[in-house]
Amino acid sequence: MFVHLHVAAWALAFISFGLAWALYWYKKDKPAAFFHWVTRVLLASIAVTGIILVYRYITRDMMGDFGPELVVKTLSGLWAVVMMEWILYRLKRGGVFKGFVVQLVVMVAIALILGFGRLPWGFYP
Q: What are the transmembrane regions (predicted)?
């Protein structure tokens, strides 16, 4: 159940992130702030469901087989969450954010490949 909740939270977070980005880009600060807040709430739910999933991996003795991959996926997921927040913060303040976007794309790609394609409880293994 937590896998589906985690994936749904990521999907909703990316939608809210895209809306906040577009609204900040077009200088619509009030609605952008709302979607920025929604993105933060969704990022918190992603963190909670991610911690629950990592705990379940550990308690079911899957760390021996998938330990390093789980650590890399966890760190890349956390870094992606941080990059989403930093990108929106930089957009709001008018700063440079291109490097953060590159980091976000790389970390999301790593998390998706490991989460869906390699680790158990994904959709493809």
A: 6-25, 37-58, 70-88, 100-121
The structure tokens 């293994």 sit at 125
Residue type present at position 105: V
Judge whether 87 and 100 are in contact, CB under 8 Å: yes
- Backbone phi, then psi, for 95, in 5-degree steps? -90, 180
Distance CA 19, CA 24 (A): 9
The full length of the chain comes to 125
Which tokens sit at 113? Answer: 């490949």
Please, which residues have CB within 8 angstroms of residue 54's CB and are 6 or more apart in sequence?
A: 70, 74
- Taking the C-alpha atoms of residue 47 and residue 91, their distance in angstroms, rounded to an integer, is 23
DSSP state of 123: S
What residues does each domain of the chain span?
2-118
Tell whether the torsion through CA atoms of 93, 98, 100 and 105 is positive or negative. positive
